[in-house]
Design goal:
Length: 299
């Protein structure tokens, strides 16, 4: 019998692809923040584009949660990165993005890595985290928030990558909490489980950090940094503590797939040219050009 997790996984990739694109467009139209200000989420929420993107992200989050019930974290977390491919294809088709040949090659490598992980992953229910795991996830909330407070002072591509990486760590911690939480037997057990509230805390922090990251660089830079930083911790914890499994004899395939995925998302962080920012800037500057400002002043 085929696990329903595979269907949830495929739908999740599409949902995250749309979410990345829509949220990045909204972030580009919001004043850049250089403080760790939760008010940014409220300002972003004033954009209909961001709200639709947030709806797509929530949908992807729910689908990922359902997929984690049976599928290992190393597969689900790495597959989130495949949303970059969906984002890129939509950007090219709708927003006329121009992707360098190297970036296209990295996206192909990304999909190859995900395919290898799909072939290697063995569905299995999760083990429960002990008290030490709960303490670790609680401490991680504070550590990531403090690092974000300092990283928000970075500007441009370095700020985008740093904040995206921290967002990935927050979402990775949320994924670790979600894997055993998805196995809750009743609604009462689900609501009473402290993992639910740790999941929410890490998700909110990750969402704020991702919004800040998208203001400073390209969609691919911010999201690739997030996926690269988020995939490794969740994969290790899942294999060591949460009963994540690989089909016997396919360990090499899982290793190659995970490495290919990681290399591709890290490689994508090199492309920090904010494609959608150009279009937004052009819209804002047309009145200035009409008033006699030269095209050179746009640079």
């Amino acid at each position: 019998m085929v696990s329903s997790g595979w269907c949830f996984l495929a739908a999740m990739i599409v949902a995250y692809g749309f979410a990345n694109l829509l949220q990045s467009v909204a972030a580009a139209r919001t004043t850049v923040h250089h403080t760790f200000d939760p008010g940014l989420l409220l300002r972003l929420a004033s954009h209909r584009t961001y709200l639709v993107g947030l709806l797509c992200q929530v949908t992807g989050f729910v689908l990922a949660f359902l997929a984690r019930r049976d599928l290992p974290l190393f597969l689900v977390q790495a597959s989130v990165a495949a949303g970059l491919g969906v984002t890129a294809m939509i950007g090219v088709a709708v927003l006329k993005w121009r992707l360098p040949a190297a970036e296209i090659a990295l996206l192909v490598l990304l999909f190859g890595g995900i395919t290898a992980l799909v072939l290697a992953a063995q569905p299995a229910p999760s083990r429960q985290l002990g008290a030490a795991g709960l303490i670790g996830l609680t401490a991680a909330v504070g550590v990531i928030a403090v690092l974000g407070f300092f990283a928000v002072r970075l500007r441009g591509a370095p700020g985008s990558v740093a904040l995206g990486s921290l967002a990935g760590m927050a979402f990775s911690a949320a994924a670790v909490a979600a894997r055993p939480l998805a196995s809750a037997d009743t609604a009462e057990a689900f609501v009473r489980d402290p993992l639910l509230y740790l999941l929410v805390a890490h998700s909110v922090i990750g969402q704020l950090l991702l919004g800040l990251a998208m203001q400073r660089g390209s969609t691919t830079a911010a999201v690739a940094a997030m996926d690269a930083a988020g995939a490794v911790p969740a994969a290790i914890i899942g294999l060591l503590l949460l009963n994540d499994r690989i089909w016997p004899g396919r360990e090499w395939l899982a290793g190659v797939g995970f490495l290919a995925t990681l290399v591709s998302v890290v490689g994508l962080t090199r492309y920090a040219e904010p494609q959608h920012h150009h279009a937004v800037a052009g819209e804002r500057e047309r009145p200035m050009i009409a008033a006699g400002v030269t095209a050179r002043a746009r640079r």
